[in-house]
Design goal:
287 residues; mainly beta; Immunoglobulin-like; 3 domains; 4-stranded mixed beta sheet; 1 helix
Length: 287
């Protein structure tokens, strides 16, 4: 004899044989234990979704409000999910899982920049623990936070940064390469009172200059100015390039004005490709 659908409790069972004889006994029916199951605790980087699966019964009630055995969640912060699992005539059981969410790193990199062909510039990334740069061409290293870059043509570098939890973020930087010919030029006239900034100071103009030495003498052969400053900047009209601080028309740039006169100069230096140059001549200071 089989009985189904019984709830927990005590039952009297009466047995009758074929001769009509009867006997009885008491039978106790206990609860069937239901054990809820769910995914183990886990962790992942912020962004993707994850499936949670519960089992052990036929009726499910999640803390999210869903009622299926399998749900998809996309937490933006560490979250604990609870599910109550039950079945007809069985007491419910509860299970929970904690999803630890790691925030993605915020990789930052130097702003886009421009260099003259042959120059080297340092690029700096931050915000992660390790970095991978690509393409690798023209870089001093491709797995460091601050490589030196000397690309021969305009290049956009992609940086993938990874933190200690394995979470990743990307950034990019474009290095524009300006290729100019080897040029060096020193004007033969300048005026400290000229409103045009490029004419107000005697400066070395050109492109691709790597080293220079400018010495200026008065008519008695006395040195009035000397400079090896090769800092490169754009001219006042936005074109390339002007080098050094120039001569402002004062005695060794000390503020003491020299008289209107003609001066001799010697200009020596080297271009970035190694080619050397030397120029000599006269310059006139006017007011």
């Amino acid at each position: 004899m089989t009985a189904t659908g019984l709830v927990s409790g005590s039952y009297i069972v009466v047995l009758t044989d074929s001769m009509g004889c009867m006997d009885s006994t008491t039978l106790s029916v206990g609860d069937v234990l239901l054990i809820a199951t769910i995914n183990p605790d886990t962790s992942f980087c912020q962004g993707p979704s994850i499936q949670l699966a519960a089992g052990g019964g036929s009726i499910y009630a999640w803390s999210t409000g869903e009622t299926t055995s399998v749900i998809t969640v996309n937490p933006v912060a560490t979250t604990t999910y609870t599910v109550v699992v039950s079945a007809p005539n069985c007491p419910a059981d509860t299970a929970e899982v904690t999803i630890t969410v790691y925030a993605s790193p915020n990789v930052q990199v130097s702003p886009d920049t421009a260099i003259v062909g042959g120059e080297t510039i340092q690029l700096v990334a931050s915000g992660a623990s390790t970095y991978i740069w690509s393409p690798t061409l023209g870089l001093s290293c491709d797995d460091c936070p601050a490589p030196e870059a000397s690309p021969m043509e305009t290049t956009t570098y992609l940086i993938v940064g990874t933190d200690n939890y394995g979470c990743m973020d990307t950034a990019s930087i474009t290095v524009t390469v300006m290729n100019f010919k080897n040029i060096v030029y020193l004007p033969n006239v300048f005026s400290p009172v000229d409103p045009n900034g490029d004419n107000k100071v005697l400066q070395v103009f050109g492109s691709n200059i790597d080293e220079l030495s400018l010495v200026i003498y008065d008519r008695w052969g006395e040195k009035v100015h000397e400079s090896t400053n090769v800092i490169e900047a754009f001219r006042g009209d936005g074109k390339c390039c002007v080098y050094g601080n120039g001569w402002d028309g004062t005695w060794k740039n000390n503020g003491t004005k020299v008289n209107v006169a003609t001066f001799a100069y010697i200009l020596r230096g080297k271009f970035k490709d190694g080619e050397e140059f030397e120029k000599q001549g006269n310059i006139t200071l006017i007011k």
